[in-house]
């Protein structure tokens, strides 16, 4: 029973190729007609809900699996290896992702797959999972703002936003930094908790996928910024910056995220 | 109490950044003066804390009641905080005029204050997580400072090189922190050092001793931050940022590696073969950086490679067990390199109007490329060149520390002092001139003063940072090679260097340059050096190949 539950959890805490489902959903690739009112599935509310709820379902399934008598038969280690490979695979693929939806879906898969490493080394997974998923939320909303302004959130199409949309660009930078686990974001502390926990359980090898994925996220994050925030802005586009109230709301949310990160590390370590 | 006051150092930096951000729409460019004011206060606080620490001696710990943001204030912290705040103040003062009328001056000052706060936090960190946070944040903020001109592709590219190299250096530090935490069950740095002293041979990863593994990881982290070979390419290329950022980077941030090694000195005192790696890497970096510096025609790139060479020397000093000397070196280098960077722009401007080189021997040699006949027989001058610097460095060391000959590290440093002196005297021989002996006298006197000052300051800092002689001995022992190997190595090195000097003197006397004699070898070496040993090209190719493979893989897997 435990392997089946673990496999089911692999849909929610992505394990390749089961990760195709959350990826397709986050990219809005569900066929037309499969869901009523198709547009809402591309909206930020749906994606944010998915990013927050899927890991929780996955953690619930994991908890059930670990309660099964067959859970100790080496399955967690096997799934930890699978999770580590999935994370590195998606981090590597993230390097060439230019479309915002693909970018966030690949990062989601790469980040949440690391939870399996914690499972393999007996680290409590709930807080790291929340930390990793919640750090993606600001980016989801800011990519939506880009889509509303330019029709698509894609790197390279409208560079130099920092010169035309300063509020949006600054918040976008902060959102990308939070997503790629830069200090003070909950994902940074989540990674630290997974790494520290793994090493404490004598599983030094956990550092390999964590470090590799983290390095690749940084590279991919810079690629995204280079194609959107930096560069020479186009003159043939109409630019409309965020309203101050929207900017303050998003900025306040990010400060709250930083505080949550500190809380996370206090509890997790 | 001191540690609690020390919270002000990073906090004032953050408050300054926030104030600049909030007041910029109202007071415009005057925010620069506000930022300078905060820097001045930070410097005064650091100075006060340093003077108090000298009297107090003991280290102190302060906490906020949570596991993060604890502060450990000791002599090393006090000295580094003073150095960082001084360099930061100079950079701030320079930036007021430099950034005038720059449309992004607010962002610049916010980031400048932010990075100074993070450097302070790193220096003061009393727990591993705070150290990690500050260490990571420095690389990220530096990325944005280097990318100040957001429209320039080159600025963006080289800022990325910097960020990714710094991130490569972040990872071993995290691994080291995780290993230390799992082995000793605490994040507190002073508590950890006590635990390591009590049980230095605790089992670490893969059955290796903790000290050895952690020492290696700390070195790797320091190598990336301090631009050691092969992680050096980011440093000479990041000249697209504003000059104050270059000054801060070359005088402050790049020194973080030396600080980190010193911070973890209690770990290195229990290692057997880790510091030798630092020696090897530092030596390679020194040689590469110095050679590359000579190849550059761009003054800022040349300064960049000079920093690389100096950082190599600093790491090499750590590899020899002379930890406190590395701190002295990084402070001295910080001061002179900041001066050079901040003056480089106006120097170029002045030189365009008037070269201002007196038309004496040096002008004839450097500009007119005239090589006068040497004043003495080359054999006599070679003897002076080899003997006099050696006598100076040995007597200077003997005056300050009689037992220096018992330390292998001091012997190798002495060797380097000797080479430097000999190089200077050889230059006197080459340029000749009308009054060579007066020039020789000046050079010998200057060299003696420099060496004496260096040894004296090094000794004082040694006593300040590591007052326990037993601990100093332990670090020297950790850096030692087996005695027979060391003896053979020294003999070979001395023979090779002396032989090379004689060869150079002989060829100079016969007016038959070695570059002509060994033309083919010289040309191929020149080609390698002009391409900077292809390290940057290799990194570029590797990055392109990885991106291409990522694209192919995504296409194959249909992007889901």
Query: Ends of chain A: how far apart?
Result: 32 Å
> Biggest interface: chains and residue counts?
A-B, 47 and 43 residues
Q: List the uncertain runs of chain A.
A: none
What is the strand arrangement across the widest sheet of chain B? 1-2
Characterization of this structure:
- The complex is a heterodimer of chains A (about 270) and B (about 550).
- Chain A has 13 helices and no strands.
- Chain A is mainly α and about 270 residues long.
- In chain A, helix 1 (about 1-10) packs antiparallel against helix 3, helix 7 (about 125-135) packs antiparallel against helix 11 and helix 11 runs parallel beside helix 13.
- Chain A has helices at about 1-10, 20-25, 45-65, 75-95, 100-115, 115-120, 125-135, 135-150, 160-165, 165-180, 185-200, 205-230, 245-269.
- The relative contact order of chain A is 0.13.
- Chain B has a two-stranded antiparallel ribbon with strand order 1-2.
- Chain B is built from 25 helices and two strands.
- Among the domains of chain B are: about 370-510; about 515-560.
- The model of chain B has no long low-confidence stretch (mean pLDDT about 90).
- Classes of the chains: A mainly alpha (about 270), B mainly alpha (about 550).
- Chains A and B meet through helix 2, helix 4, helix 11, helix 12 and helix 13 of A and helix 6, helix 7 and helix 25 of B.
């Amino acid at each position: 029973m435990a392997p089946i539950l673990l496999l089911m959890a692999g849909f929610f805490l992505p394990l390749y190729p089961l990760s195709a489902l959350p990826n397709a959903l986050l990219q809005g690739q569900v066929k037309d007609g499969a869901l009523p009112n198709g547009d809402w599935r591309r909206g930020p509310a749906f994606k944010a809900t998915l990013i927050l709820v899927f890991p929780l379902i996955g953690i619930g399934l994991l908890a059930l699996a670990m309660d099964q008598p067959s859970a100790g038969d080496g399955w967690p280690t096997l799934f930890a290896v699978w999770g580590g490979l999935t994370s590195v695979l998606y981090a590597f693929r993230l390097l060439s992702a230019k479309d915002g939806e693909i970018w966030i879906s690949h990062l989601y898969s790469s980040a949440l797959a690391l939870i399996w490493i914690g499972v393999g080394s007996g680290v409590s997974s709930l807080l790291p999972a929340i930390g990793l998923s919640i750090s993606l939320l600001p980016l989801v909303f800011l990519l939506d703002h880009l889509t509303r302004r330019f029709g698509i959130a894609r790197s390279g199409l409208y560079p130099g936003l920092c010169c035309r949309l300063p509020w949006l660009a600054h918040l976008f930078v902060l959102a990308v930094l939070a997503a790629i686990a830069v200090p003070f974001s909950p994902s940074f502390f989540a990674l630290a908790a997974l790494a520290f926990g793994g090493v404490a359980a004598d599983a030094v090898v956990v550092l390999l996928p964590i470090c590799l994925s983290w390095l690749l996220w940084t590279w991919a994050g810079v690629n995204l910024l280079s194609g959107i925030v930096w560069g020479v802005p186009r003159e043939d586009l109409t630019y409309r910056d965020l309203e101050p109230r929207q900017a303050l709301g998003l900025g306040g949310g990010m400060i709250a995220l930083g505080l949550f990160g500190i809380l996370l590390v206090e509890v997790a370590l | 109490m001191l540690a609690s006051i020390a919270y002000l150092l990073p906090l004032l930096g953050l408050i300054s950044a926030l104030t600049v951000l909030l007041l910029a729409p109202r007071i415009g460019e005057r925010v620069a003066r506000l930022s300078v004011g905060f820097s001045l206060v930070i410097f005064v606080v650091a100075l006060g804390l340093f003077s108090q620490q000298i009297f107090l001696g003991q280290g102190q710990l302060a906490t906020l009641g949570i596991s993060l943001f604890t502060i450990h204030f000791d002599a090393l912290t006090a000295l580094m905080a003073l150095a960082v705040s001084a360099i930061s103040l100079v950079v701030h003062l320079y930036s007021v005029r430099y950034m005038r009328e720059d449309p992004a001056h607010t962002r610049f000052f916010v980031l400048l204050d932010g990075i100074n706060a993070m450097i302070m936090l790193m220096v003061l960190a009393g727990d591993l997580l705070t150290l990690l946070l500050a260490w990571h944040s420095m690389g990220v903020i530096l990325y944005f400072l280097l990318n100040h001109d957001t429209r320039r592709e080159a600025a963006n590219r080289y800022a990325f090189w910097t960020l990714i190299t710094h991130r490569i250096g972040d990872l071993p530090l995290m691994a080291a922190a995780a290993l230390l935490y799992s082995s000793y069950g605490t994040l507190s740095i002073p508590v950890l050092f006590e635990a390591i002293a009590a049980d230095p041979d605790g089992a670490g990863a893969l059955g290796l001793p903790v000290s050895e593994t952690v020492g290696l990881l700390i070195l790797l982290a320091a190598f990336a931050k301090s631009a050691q070979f092969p992680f050096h390419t980011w440093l000479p290329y990041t000249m697209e940022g504003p000059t104050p950022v270059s000054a801060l980077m070359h005088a402050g941030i790049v020194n973080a590696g030396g600080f980190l090694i010193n911070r973890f000195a209690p770990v290195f005192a229990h290692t057997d073969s880790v510091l030798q790696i630092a020696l090897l890497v530092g030596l390679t970096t020194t040689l590469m950086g110095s050679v590359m510096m000579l190849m550059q025609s761009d003054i800022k790139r040349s300064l960049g490679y000079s920093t690389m060479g100096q950082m190599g020397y600093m790491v090499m000093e750590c590899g020899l067990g002379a930890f406190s000397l590395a701190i002295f070196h990084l402070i001295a280098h910080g001061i002179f390199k900041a001066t050079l960077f901040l003056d480089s722009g106006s120097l170029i401007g002045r030189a365009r109007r008037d070269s201002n080189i007196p038309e004496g021997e040096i002008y004839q040699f450097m500009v007119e490329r005239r090589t006068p006949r040497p004043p003495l027989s080359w054999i006599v001058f070679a003897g002076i060149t080899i003997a006099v610097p050696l006598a100076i460095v040995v007597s200077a060391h003997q005056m300050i520390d009689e037992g220096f000959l018992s330390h292998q590290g001091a012997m190798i440093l002495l060797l380097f002092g000797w080479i430097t002196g000999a190089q200077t005297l050889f230059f006197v021989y080459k340029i000749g001139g009308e009054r060579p002996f007066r020039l020789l006298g000046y050079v010998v006197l200057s060299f003696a003063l420099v060496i004496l000052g260096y040894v004296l300051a090094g000794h004082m800092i040694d006593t300040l940072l590591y007052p326990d002689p037993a601990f100093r001995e332990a670090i020297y022992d950790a850096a030692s090679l087996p005695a027979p190997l060391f003896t053979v190595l020294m003999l070979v090195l001395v023979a090779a260097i002396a032989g090379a000097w004689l060869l150079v003197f002989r060829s100079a006397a016969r007016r038959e340059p070695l570059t002509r004699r060994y033309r083919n070898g010289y040309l191929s070496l020149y080609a390698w050096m002009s391409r900077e040993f292809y390290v940057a090209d290799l990194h570029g190719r590797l990055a392109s190949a990885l991106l291409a493979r990522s694209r192919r893989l995504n296409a194959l897997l249909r992007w889901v």
